[in-house]
Amino acid sequence: MKTTIVEVKNYVGQEVTIGAWLANKRSSGKIAFLQLRDGSGFIQGVVVKNEVPEEVFQLAKSLTQESSLYVTGIVREDERSPFGYELSVTKLELIHEAHDYPITPKEHGTEFLMDHRHLWLRSKRQHANMKIRNEIIRATYEFFNKEGFIKIDPPILTGSAPEGTTELFHTKYFDEDAYLSQSGQLYMEAAAMAFGKVFSFGPTFRAEKSKTRRHLIEFWMIEPEMAFYEFEDNLKVQEDYVSYVVQSVLKNCSLELKILNRDTTKLEKVQAPFPRITYDDAIKFLHEQGFDDIKWGDDFGSPHETAIANSFDKPVFITHYPKAIKPFYMQPDPTRDDVVLCADLIAPEGYGEIIGGSERIHDYDLLKQELERHQLSLETYSWYLDLRKYGSVPHSGFGLGLERTVAWIAGCEHVRETIPFPRLLNRLYP
């Protein structure tokens, strides 16, 4: 019976064959322990000298790291194994013998590992990170489909920018200027006027010359947009969605979280509703904490966000930021013109902002005024203004950064480990 490692639980006491790679091994005179992986998981294969033909035992002892093989054996339950099962090997068939695999079980520097990212992905921790990433994606589709959203795919090449062009990658689109998308939001607003509740999930790009552990040049965003949803409705969707994703990872990736030594007690607390603090109160709080450098009207940096998040045991919304530091499309607070109906969701444990969202301006004249104030071309944004001419309604949306969310849930120190092939300021290889 040919199967995969993740499926061996269905074949306890039976003989199965698995196509695998040798991740590591150790052997004594009469027994060899093979650490095997097949992409679905990791399992130990035990080869006992007096239970197999001599050539099988000799092959087991001579196998090199990352050689590929077919392994046949009896599935046994094993309480000592994190996975819960092991394989009593009866037969080995070598497919390809690997030589001088560069990533050995010793310590390697980060740059070396990043240069070998195409191989580093095979390691147990990176495998766990990618499985958690995949679960977040799966749960995302499940949540939004369950809530009646339709997935819409905005373009990656755009002729304009939702938040200005200073941090965009410029390219030529035949004889026109074009940019790699930094957000699908404006297009999602158009889609929301056609379908009510929509979401996108795709790559976005920021030409931001930052080297912090929270930044990537290319990253993935989940961007829902909702017609007839006002500010409070928007926050409710965000906290329900994040709670759903975290609980899904806890339920379906317990082994991966264990491999990463993640403290799950903190994740178990992530249940809606989430606490909120206004920008005004956040400034007061930071002053009380000794952050004398921050003043009203400044945007928050990582140390400020971390200090605020550390006073809560769940993600926290910071709401009502100053209008002057936010994009042109955000709806002003009806009670005061200097702040907008927006919120950033800050993850606990120092992982920073994972969501930015707002109610959008739905009044034609006000949006036109804001475009002019930001010195943006009315001609370029004429299609966006059209959305306010033909049946405009209050609407809201948000964007969640996938990699920052993976980093937080998985407990990764740096976002470079949360995407298969990271693009960083100094890295376009492999």
Automatic annotation (TrEMBL):
It catalyses: tRNA(Asn) + L-asparagine + ATP = L-asparaginyl-tRNA(Asn) + AMP + diphosphate + H(+). One of its GO terms (biological process) is asparaginyl-tRNA aminoacylation. It is found in: Cytoplasm. Residues 130-430 form the Aminoacyl-transfer RNA synthetases class-II family profile domain. It comes from the Bacteria. PROSITE patterns: AA_TRNA_LIGASE_II. It is an enzyme of class 6 (ligase). Keywords: Aminoacyl-tRNA synthetase, ATP-binding, Cytoplasm, Ligase, Nucleotide-binding, Protein biosynthesis. Its main location: cytoplasm. HAMAP family: Asn_tRNA_synth. PANTHER family: ASPARAGINE--TRNA LIGASE, MITOCHONDRIAL-RELATED, ASPARTYL/LYSYL-TRNA SYNTHETASE. This is Asparagine--tRNA ligase. It comes from Caldibacillus thermoamylovorans. The lineage of its organism: Bacteria, Bacillati, Bacillota, Bacilli, Bacillales. The gene is asnS.
